[in-house]
From TrEMBL, chain A:
Keyword DNA-binding: no
Function: Catalytic component of the GATOR2 complex, a multiprotein complex that acts as an activator of the amino acid-sensing branch of the mTORC1 signaling pathway. The GATOR2 complex indirectly activates mTORC1 through the inhibition of the GATOR1 subcomplex. GATOR2 probably acts as an E3 ubiquitin-protein ligase toward GATOR1. In the presence of abundant amino acids, the GATOR2 complex mediates ubiquitination of the NPRL2 core component of the GATOR1 complex, leading to GATOR1 inactivation. In the absence of amino acids, GATOR2 is inhibited, activating the GATOR1 complex.
Pathway info: Protein modification; protein ubiquitination
Cellular-component GO terms for this entry: cytosol; GATOR2 complex; lysosomal membrane
Protein name from the UniProt record: GATOR2 complex protein WDR24
Coiled-coil stretches: none
Quaternary data: Component of the GATOR2 subcomplex, composed of MIOS, SEC13, SEH1L, WDR24 and WDR59. The GATOR2 complex interacts with CASTOR1 and CASTOR2; the interaction is negatively regulated by arginine. The GATOR2 complex interacts with SESN1, SESN2 and SESN3; the interaction is negatively regulated by amino acids. SESN1, SESN2 and SESN3 convey leucine availability via direct interaction with SEH1L and WDR24.
From TrEMBL, chain B:
Gene: SESN3
Reactions listed under catalytic activity: a hydroperoxide + L-cysteinyl-[protein] = S-hydroxy-L-cysteinyl-[protein] + an alcohol
TM region positions: none
Organism of provenance: Piliocolobus tephrosceles
This protein's name: Sestrin 3
Keywords assigned: Coiled coil, Cytoplasm, Oxidoreductase
GO cellular component terms attached to this protein's record: cytoplasm; nucleus
Broad class of where this protein is predominantly found: cytoplasm
GO biological process, any: cellular response to glucose starvation
Entry's family note: Belongs to the sestrin family.
GO molecular function, one term: oxidoreductase activity, acting on peroxide as acceptor
SUPFAM superfamilies recorded: AhpD-like (SSF69118)
UniProt cross-references to InterPro entries, sorted A to Z: AhpD-like, Sestrin
Compartments (UniProt record): Cytoplasm
Amino acid sequence: MEKMSRVTTALGGSVLTGRTMHCHLDAPANAISVCRDAAQVVVAGRSIFKIYAIEEEQFVEKLNLRVGRKPSLNLSCADVVWHQMDENLLATAATNGVVVTWNLGRPARNKQDQLFTEHKRTVNKVCFHPTEAHVLLSGSQDGFMKCFDLRRKDSVSTFSGQSESVRDVQFSIRDYFTFASTFENGNVQLWDIRRPDRCERMFTAHNGPVFCCDWHPEDRGWLATGGRDKMVKVWDMTTHRAKEMHCVQTIASVARVKWRPECRHHLATCSMMVDHNIYVWDVRRPFVPAAMFEEHRDVTTGIAWRHPHDPSFLLSGSKDSSLCQHLFRDASQPVERANPEGLCYGLFGDLAFAAKESLVAAESGRKPYTGDRRHPIFFKRKLDPAEPFAGLASSALSVFETEPGGGGMRWFVDTAERYALAGRPLAELCDHNAKVARELGRNQVAQTWTMLRIIYCSPGLVPTANLNHSVGKGGSCGLPLMNSFNLKDMAPGLGSETRLDRSKGDARSDTVLLDSSATLITNEDNEETEGSDVPADYLLGDVEGEEDELYLLDPEHAHPEEPECVLPQEAFPLRHEIVDTPPGPEHLQDKADSPHVSGSEADVASLAPVDSSFSLLSVSHALYDSRLPPDFFSVLVRDMLHFYAEQGDVQMAVSVLIILGERVRKDIDEQTQEHWYTSYIDLLQRFRLWNVSNEVVKLSTSRAVSCLNQASTTLHVNCSHCKRPMSSRGWVCDRWGSGVGRWGRGLQAAQEPLLRRPPSCPPPGATAAPACVPSATTWSRVCSCGARAAATAATCSTS
Amino acid sequence: MNRGGSSPSAAANYLLCTNCRKVLRKDKRIRVSQPLTRGPSAFIPEKEVVQANTVDERTNFLVEEYSTSGRLDNITQVMSLHTQYLESFLRSQFYMLRMDGPLPLPYRHYIAIMAAARHQCSYLINMHVDEFLKTGGIAEWLNGLEYVPQRLKNLNEINKLLAHRPWLITKEHIQKLVKTGENNWSLPELVHAVVLLAHYHALASFVFGSGINPERDPEISNGFTLISVNNFCVCDLANDNNIENASLSGGNFGIVDSLSELEALMERMKRLQEETEDEEASQEEMSTRFEKEKKESLFVVSGDTFHSFPHSDFEDDMIITSDVSRYIEDPGFGYEDFARRGEEHLPTFRAQDYTWENHGFSLVNRLYSDIGHLLDEKFRMVYNLTYNTMATHEDVDTTMLRRALFNYVHCMFGIRYDDYDYGEVNQLLERSLKVYIKTVTCYPERTTKRMYDSYWRQFKHSEKVHVNLLLMEARMQAELLYALRAITRHLT
């Protein structure tokens, strides 16, 4: 204790200085440790063991401990630790299972002090007692932990984890006798150093190996653990059962974790594989790291805070053979880049909107409308002034519900299901889709399909002459409509289609559970709104017609008398009057005046329409008259696709894109295409149109999209009898499945061509096709206990 | 060696093999003479396996759950001597073949065929030809590699290296495959393929090592399984030999002799266990021991004329090769001793620097979700499996023995564990066992019943199967480690 206070005063006397810097090592590092004077750091690896002095501007090599003719494996270090009480004392763990101590005070060139060869396997970790000068602890692959008294030749006591390898051991900073150890099988054990016979406590902390742990420097009983399951967990060990306080999900397995000094909720992590960065997390904000250091080019293997009372200096060693000092003020802060606004649509048009609180507060001055027929939700999180990011990324979430009784999304589902996207000649596809659209009362879409057919299918299919006549007719009904095309005109078409269906309340509530609510809940919890997963703009068209019904309700500021929508305009680009009218007709009009077209007009009048669907638009045929290559129109078609996408009908955009394929693909940039595809697929999946979405994925040419099919789909099934997940043994409930052997063998043979139908399932109906995971088959199966469990398989993973 | 006996049958087999695809398509049923031994394995008496089977309902259940063919095939029957392991094995295999993954189902089977073809394992080839067609594969592909898409063909190189000299795989190989272009592989696809390749190379080792017989008619002959199952080709050849060998070797070895062998082994194990702190070998000594073991493994097969395959049989190999080789390129490429090319430019793979638990798992699981857990469980299972028995003795800690087997396989692939004293290998694994190990892991197609019989004569067959399982998994892990390390290097 006395010594501890001296350290603090030492810091108070001379403040640490330095800059972000790095130096090259000769070999990859496996671990680093800092001397208590905060002026030296030791780096150890398979073929490196050196001490560097940390100076103002650079690292200076001070001592090479790897001496001798032919370096032995004892020097191949897996871990190194510097005693925090004694500047001359170091310990290393060798990959061959030897624990070595080093005395820098030795006059000889070889500073090696003692050698403990008691472990049979690689020693993963060594740890000095924080206050006791002679106590050293080691944890090894052989499953044992050993405690050494440096004044003696052998270990004082051996602790058997009774399981696989020990990955980390750490003395508690506060409890003199306690240490924690973590294991490859996911367990954490708590030991009393005086009682080697059995551990005080054991619990499973992670799924898979727990690579590291760290006691909180101040909070007695807080232990952070990091595992291969990509999680960092903070446990409160003071309670009767270890309680998980916080959990941070990282993107790669966690190799090291270190609490940040003087910052109660901060810890630094680095990962074992793939990810080379060092992150500093605020455990209360588990989704965005508070700071990030990106200097290393290969995985970081060791991190250490330079001084136990200084939060701004972090040292790190890496496999890329470099040693770095990071300054906290130079760290990149992902929070700064986070978008504090987010917008997300529910399946039926409900809208959740999160924005900076300041913004919302300002707007709320406008007094939201509060109708009594609806129940809007407004979340506002109490600000904790102690929290970080307070000014940066705090936001409020508002949820707008739509008016009941509006139009449903039925048209979308129907269209998606009935459209034909491939497998037939282009002309037929267009005709088919036009027909579908017309039957659903979407005339504009139908017309577009017809136009596409005319543009891209060889004129030979429809004799030019036949069509020319209709200029007159088109002039009377088709063109005026198209020219004056705007929202109001389309209202009966588009508007009604997009009304939200409130009447189907029941169905709605459970659907919402599936998708939108997930977003809501997380937002509610953490306020980190990182942009909605649905592109913000593509449904706007649908809602625009009802903007009066959208409102924000802030109960605290509710003024029922003042009905007004307070939705910030700028957050929500309203649908503009469409200036760039659909390309087809306009273009035709221009052309109509051109001399070469007028020549053909002569033939026009005498002919009758071939197909009524052409009546509005058939003009076009006359005009390009097979002399214009389809390429000529590609610009227009592109604009048309953009128009639909902007308007919210991404379905149309994607369908056309798929059907026209190469003809238009080159005109639209990859990113936009990908954006459309993902939007459409997302929508389809929200409506559980797995088959369609899978077809779209399959037909898409965008690489990023087709990759979607390579991801796994997990299907969780619970036994309907006992409600337990049936995960461990395929499709059998653990509890009720004792008599499973009785399933008929003969059935198996019949099943062979099918993929994994549940064994007790009756022979396949029409639902599943051979060689493909059935896409949306509902399997009703009988658990051996007689209960029925139904499940819906999601996407197909084969192509 | 009785050459006259085996060559006609080899010729017949050859014909059959080329036909079997046509047979499938034309639905021409051909009855094939049954292998001379009954039961799932040519090495293990039928009753040993079958007895265990009837008792075990668990196996039946597992087969129904996880077998892709829905039948209790011979591999499964033999493995069912170790039901615990069987479950992990079938689960992971089923996951690779049938569950969500980046590759289409026919691809998976075709890759399995390619992998098995590297070791001319017709048992696996036939099995997967069958499944390939069932899952909707294009029959034309079965005519050989020139009929498959370029993309699959590109896997050849890595298949070849992985099977015989995995240490040669570099990140350049990976880069070549994933480089953007017409026929590129995405990383998840590649990882899936690599897992399949490694799995089937290793499984080929098991098939030959345990002398798995070709499939016989299933008891319930339900039309369509019958035809495809019957084809057997190369395996049978090996078995023919083995049977002759068996008759030769059967009575030759005295029981007294083998008994004392066992006692000696037990004695050595005990001694090693006790002297935890022996003379404390110096580091140089340790690394010399590793090198020695590595070098010695070099002579294990090639130097020993008694054990090595009779020369004439290589010619048979050649004939057969021409049939199987449609699925591979460069059929002459085989295992070359790691030590021999150890002119120090091929660094030893330090196990501690890239372990399965820390690195391999994370990578494989990242790119091909969940397979990591299944493989992890399987490796762990096989490594820790023990019944605490050795032959007639009970209550024996066999950890050392298992570790020696596992590490010896890795040693032959140039993977070194810092914390292992390779002197133990020398003490625990007798020469005939080393011959067997080397053959099974490096040239599985040359395994004979004589080799199988000549080591550990007192041990039970189930224990020898256990050895095979260890060898198989160690080999698979070694291949995976090299391939995954290359992928990691490509990523960084």
